């Protein structure tokens, strides 16, 4: 029974020495001296703020993209024991001792190092020689811009890693398709393709470009499968469902999971949550939640409320009034009603409180039991401090003459009667009998007499003059076709009024309230709101010293100074290997010209290369040229501040094309011994030159001290901004 123990257990394994050596070299090149400089380098000042907020569990919104990349950077900080206490306010600021610099930069560096063996394997899976694959990996290894970008707390190296992983996974899956469909390996690589694509999109939305490319290639491959008569209908359906599950459903589920983890970690209120709705703010610990937790849920006649405008632009604000009146005449000579001003005020204030009154009754307190206000009910809004009624009439607004002025009515005993009835319309109602709810309901107030809608003037510069204390204008919008967030309000703070006497009511308005009703948003509601804010929130794009256009990238006419030592000549620049960039451009031109030549000749039934070589050439172009174009061309359509590092994913695909073109030229154009020997010698000379250029620019990749003369010698282009101190 135990006879098998008589023989030793032998395990054999194949080790690709090339792959191991490339991985070791990649780790050395990216991890060597990783803690240097021990100072904030370029966009570390930006991403570091988010890492600190993760450490402190404080909510934030970053309009640059989804949260996975930020969470991975924060993971590095967590593993290093970072407590989040550092002021990220200046590039070049020295890190304090509590900041684990090596740990914070570790994951981007590892991702950058692993891109090298991934490049090798991609070319192997594309059916090119190991020599070509080795060349591609070495070009990635010796690319100065990729080295620089991967050695700091930045996201591009992580993005490129997931992009290359998704490409490799799909190629492995596709190659297994021919002989082992639905095997364990087949499922593994197909699933990993979807996971890697989801992670790429989760790091930066730029990952969506490669994801779309792979979906298109997968769709093309499946289209070809439809013509294979050896596959049954059931088999084709299974293939389709497998691809739909792994390339669509699972990536979407993973994308949602990134936000779920993000929102679970960031449960505390912070400075960024003010741009979110009141319901979202109330779901966070601290901040608005301390005020609103336990408020009455249903708004009733007699309720005391504050009304926040949903738009939140140009800033969040609340419906507000004060004792000052509109001037009798404006600067342009137009007259006003001289009624009490109504504005939208961007700060919490006792003058933001209003009382919901039943027009048919005089009392300003909540009855017992409370009578809830429903969609379609007519109400009057009484200003809590001045007890004047919210009113509008056919008088032009101060800044918007085509809209009606909104005021609190003062009876001057003239022929201008009060018009203070408003119909409550719940925009996000589920039925026409819905109750108006605190925080959750988004409502419009439609003026009964004129059908004007209460609206804040959301245009930048729409602040009232000095007489209106620079507060935002509130108007009655007469042409209220359709839905706009500037017309929508929600109750943020709410209490049931108990005091009928004005003096007692003023004391009540100044005091907080507590009742035992909680309002928790579902994850999907929070995700939808946060995703919408990320997509629509735009910070003002200002011209940056190192910003550039997409046309500047292809010839590297620009650079970025990442860090400068305060005393020595040591500095770090985002600069690429000039020879590699030029070679990549030439390779792209050669590929497209040769492809056009082959296509024309094949149309004439002239086949210059064998069919298998042609299919290999097309497949390589789909991945490398396609990857370059989809990651480059969209930037010509973007209205945002662009930097050289945005080109790095496209550049990576273009670099992979170089050895592909070289092998193709060697195999099919240099067929005799002498031309092939000369071609190989040229390749060796060219590769030696690539290494020399890498070595020349490595001091500004790693931040080594340089003299003024050495710095001047590195300025190969007049457009490069190499920093030289005056002597």
How would you describe this protein?
It is found in: Endoplasmic reticulum membrane. By secondary structure, the chain is of the alpha+beta class. The chain contains 20 helices and 14 strands. The strands form three sheets. A six-stranded antiparallel sheet has the order 9-8-5-4-1-12, with no helix packed on it. Strands 2, 3, 6, 7, 10 and 11 form a six-stranded antiparallel sheet that branches. Strand 13 and strand 14 (571-574) form a beta hairpin. Helix 1 runs parallel beside helix 5, helix 4 (101-125) runs parallel beside helix 7 (156-177) and helix 6 runs parallel beside helix 19. The longest helix has 33 residues, at 233-265. 41% of the residues are buried.
Give me the secondary-structure topology.
Elements: H1 17-31, H2 44-55, H3 68-79, H4 101-125, H5 130-141, H6 144-150, H7 156-177, H8 184-203, H9 207-226, H10 233-265, H11 278-282, H12 288-292, E1 303-309, E2 318-325, E3 340-345, E4 353-357, E5 378-383, E6 390-396, E7 404-408, E8 422-426, E9 443-447, E10 453-456, E11 472-477, E12 489-496, H13 502-510, H14 523-536, H15 550-554, E13 560-564, E14 571-574, H16 578-603, H17 611-630, H18 648-668, H19 673-702, H20 708-713
Antiparallel strand pairs: 1-4, 1-12, 2-3, 3-7, 3-11, 4-5, 5-8, 6-7, 7-11, 8-9, 10-11, 13-14
